[in-house]
Each structure stands twice: as C-alpha cells, then as structure tokens.
Amino acid sequence: MLKRVSLTIVVLLAALPAVLFASETAGQPIDLTHSAVGIASIVIFVLSYALVMTEEFTHLRKSKPVIIAAGLIWAIIGITYSQMGQSHLAEAAVRHNLEEYAELMLFLLVAMTYINSMEERRVFSALRSWLIRKKFSLRTLFWLTGILAFFISPVADNLTTALIMCAVVMSVGGTNKKFVSVACINIVVAANAGGAFSPFGDITTLMVWQKGTVEFQQFFALFIPSVVNFVIPATIMSLVISNDMPEGDAETITMLPGAKRVVALFLLTILTAVSFHSVLGLPPVLGMMTGLGYLQFFGYYLKITHKRNAADLSTVGDVVAFDVFRKVARAEWDTLLFFYGVVLAVGGLGFLGYLAVASEIMYTQMGPTTANILVGILSAIVDNIPVMFAVLTMEPTMDLSQWLLVTLTAGVGGSMLSIGSAAGVALMGQAKGVYTFGSHLKWTPVIALGYAASIQVHIWLNF
Q1: Burial (CB count <10 Å: 0-12, 13-18, 19+), residue 19
Q2: Domain extents for the chain?
Q3: What's the whole-model pTM score?
Q4: Is 437 within 8 Å of 208 (Cβ atoms)?
Q5: Is 251 exposed, middle or buried (0-12, 13-18, 19+ CB in 10 A)?
Q6: Distance (Å, rounded) from C-alpha 277 to C-alpha 287?
Q7: Least CB-packed of 236, 261, 323, 397 within 10 Å?
C-alpha cells in the first residue's frame, strides 16, 4: 500500500506541466490547489488523519502519521519549488512554521512539567482521597467532580483535569456502570468548557493568545457562556443519577513536602508569562521558561533536603528525590509531537493555497458567525488543534467578538463526541468498556443543546 502511494506521488510530480508556473509572479507563493502537487498533499493529509482518528482501535500513537504527513507534504513542496529555482520561498515558510511550533511547544512543556511535579508531590492524589473519604452521595459527587473539572481545567489543562476526576468517579462508582459512564461524560463537558475561557485551559486557547488575537483578560468574557455550556447538559444528566451513597473507604493520602509551594510557583509562572506578554510586549513563552527556572531552583532545594523529608515521611513508604528533568521526561511527548506534525502539515497546505480557498468559502461567502459555529462542529469530528491552527493561519478579518466565538466553539465543540477532544479520548481508555463512544453518543443531543445555548449567550453578552 505504501509503495502504491509513493509511486502515485512520483507519477503526479512527473506529470506536473511546466506551464503551470509560467504566469505566476516570481518570488510569491504559487496557488497549487488545482495541481497534482496540491491533490497529492491533500490525499496524504487525509490518510494520515484517518489513522489519527482510529487511534482508539489501532493503538497507533497519533503523532506518527502526522509527522510522516508533514515530511511528505513539505518534500513535495520542496521538489516543486526547487524545479522553479525558488526553494528559498519554501525554506522561509517552513522556518516560520517551526518558529510558531517552538514557542507553543516550549510553553506546553513547562506547563506539563509543573503538572507532573504536582502529581509527583501527590497534590491530585490528596484531592482525590479527600473527595472519596467525604462520603458524598453519587449525585453530589457527580456535581462536585464536574464543578472541580470546570474550575481546575483553566489552570491545569482539560486533559489532566479529566483524568484526575475520572479516577475519583471510578473509585466511588465501583460496579455502578451507569454512574461512571454519565459522570465521565459530565467531566469531559466540564473540562472542555472550563478550558475555553482561559489561555491555559486548552491548546487552542493558548494558540489564540500566543498569536496576539485575544488578550489574556479578554478570554474571561467567555466565562458565562462556558458556564452555560457545562450547566445545561449537567442538569439534565444529573436527573438519571441516584442519591445513593457509594461503598468502600479510601486511604488517607498526604501531600509530599513542597507540594503547596510547587502550586504557588506554577501560579507565579503564569503571572510571569502574562506580565511578559501584557506589560513588556514579549512572547509569553519567555515568562514560562523563566518559571521553569523557579521550579528548577526549588527542585534543587527539595533534592538537598530529601533525606530529612524521607525520614519525616517514613510512614508513607520510600520517597524518591525530586528531579525536575524526570518531570520533563514525563511530559506528554506524543501530544507535543502530534502538534508538530499538525502545525507543519497544515502550514504546508496553507502554503499551497488551500487555507485561502477555505477562508474565502467560510468567512466571506458564509459569514464569520456561521463559519465559527461550523468550526466547533468540525472539531467534534476532527481534533480541534488542526482546525484552530488552520483558522489562525487563514487570518480572516474578524472583530474581537468573532475571535472569542471561534475560541469558544473550538474549545467546547469537541464535547459533542467522545473522540472530539483529548479529554474524551483519554477517558475512553481510563474507563474502558464503561465510558465508550456509544454511551457518549446517547447524550450528544443534550450536549449540543448546551453548545447552542452557550453560543447564543455569547452573542447576547459580547456582540
């Protein structure tokens, strides 16, 4: 199969007529959307993304196909522009995409390192233990895990938050599959909704902020629409949850030394990143990397005090010395590499001219409101990262209210299907056989109602 695809690409390139370039202006990217080169690139991208969408069944990590796709697309572009003697144009475009990726990758790497550090210091385990030991009813836990997911995800990101809350509902739900399934759906909706009004809540909001399209404080205009997006489905789903008390006890988990200070340093890092961007006009990634330095120095302090801490905590077993680079190594590298493939592949399609065509159809012919609503629906089927990156690369002319609308829809639209967000995909693996694509699909109309209501509230408040 791979040989046939490669042979097809070679034949298409060989058959490319030289006259295609005759009328183009030298020094400018060429519209190749109707050429064999463009068609081959689209086919490669679609095939790679088909593999991404089947990750749940094939267990092939999603980064692999998109990295290959990015390489092939730019190889085709490189061959084409080399034949024209304008390879410098393709090189400049690739370097521009790499610069955008590098900023976002380093930003996410710092955030992931802090989250891993908090997990290692047992911050999340202690929270989970406290919730279980409080003996809340199932319906109360349904609401508590949803509300916590909504308010933690703006800081800790929606994927990490969803995994933590899912561990809680699985611990207290036990064999009650109905509770676990519906509670997981509620967590996915809540985590995605909470991530929509914060630059730190989702990769798409981070991209919008780093691009400078929406300022940090302007994201909070989406708070009430995000609340509506979460509360409407949660209220309806809660009607099927009983007030029964969960069975079993949970052990008491104590946070390790320095846990609260790591949380405080993370908040200080966020403040540093915001200040670098808003006050100094510098890329926020500089503030995040400075914040990584805070953690490194504090990690050194934890390391030299390790023996004393280990003696004090002899009752909780062996305590491993804190190592910040171990936390960096535990970052979600598949996500970071997937993001690389998406940025380069979508950037290649944009260089070929496809994003300009899509922008004309969506934002000129349909209008920005309709287009932005469709972006959210599309993100339920295709991951919201490439969708949002495509919109940012198109750079449609929109006012702030429309940029906030597309930020909202891309963030919460993925909640309509379990495969529409990283949180949903992760929970299908964590609660395997209980929370499934089918169980989520049953509640899609209710989630869609919340999606529509949140859009209407945003239009009322912010247009």
Answers
A1: exposed
A2: 102-202+235-329
A3: 0.74
A4: no
A5: exposed
A6: 8
A7: 397
